[in-house]
Amino acid sequence: MNYLPSDGELALLLVIWELQPVTVRAVHERIAPHNPVGYTTVLKQMQRMHEEKGVLQRDIKDGAHLYSCPLSKNEIKKQLVEKMIHTAFDGSAAALIQYAMGGDDGASEEKQIVEVRRWLEDKTGV
Predict the structure, then answer these.
(1) Average pLDDT by consecutive 10-residue portion of the chain (126 residues)?
(2) Hey, how many other C-beta atoms are within 10 angstroms of the C-beta on 13?
(3) N or C: which end of the chain has fewer CB within 10 A?
(4) Predicted local distance difference test score (pLDDT) of residue 16
């Protein structure tokens, strides 16, 4: 399933993945201190993500509506990054990495370079 969440949906998903299955109230309580959004706004958004977009599953237990997301965090991250690479970096993952590492002028932080090099070595075995 291809699904690119809005910023608001992604904020909800991060809480849902952490606490699932979870009630709307628990999601709202976790989000409200950082984002002054009303309970009904969170409720409507989660209902839309369940009913219209099919992203959330909803179960009812002892009268409480419990939401969960069958999509993994990694699936969503992958889709978001692929869209960014395609739209902002002309399909070039290398261009994205250069930008993230401080541009293509060689002014990257040494620690980040070491981490990326280590990751590449693990992936390629070189």
Answers:
(1) 88 96 97 93 97 96 95 91 92 85 60 81 83
(2) 22
(3) C
(4) 97
Alpha carbon 4 to its chain's center: 9
Q: Which amino acid is at 58?
A: R
Look at phi and psi of residue 57 and say left if phi exceeds 0, alpha if psi is from -120 to 50, else beta. beta
Pick the CATH number of 7-68 from 1.25.40.890, 1.20.210.10, 3.20.20.370, 1.10.10.10: 1.10.10.10
CB within 8 A of 19, min separation 6: which ones?
26, 27, 30
Model pTM score: 0.76
For residue 82, what pLDDT is reported?
Answer: 92
CB 39 within 8 A of CB 25: yes
